[in-house]
Amino acid sequence: MAVTLSESAAKHVANFLSRRGKGVGIRLGVKTTGCSGMAYKLEYADEAQGEDLVFESFGVKVLVDPKSLPYIDGTELDFVREGLNEGFKFNNPNVKDQCGCGESFNV
Predict the structure, then answer these.
(1) Which one of 17, 35, 94, 97 is separated from 104 by 20 to 30 angstroms, measured CA to CA?
(2) How far apart are the C-alpha atoms of 95 and 43, rounded to whole Å?
(3) pLDDT tens digit sequence for 56-87
């Protein structure tokens, strides 16, 4: 079981945490919402919570709550630039369907 960051995502997170001056990594999870059922939660983490599972990629920690892991196990979080747009992209092998707007998914 693992959740990983691409090298590009790890560099982006590390640079942001450095500019921010605090934080231990990034927290990734899921919440029930949207027309397909689930959406990703992504935030910078200042500290690990008691039950967090901690994964590390390229020196950056990814914290995941145990309830979210079955839905995102095997996911690689990438950071991509496409033209003038940039942002995180979730490469989740568990996704069976996504809504048309790309905001939610189901497994």
Answers:
(1) 17
(2) 21
(3) 999 999 999 999 999 899 999 999 998 888 99
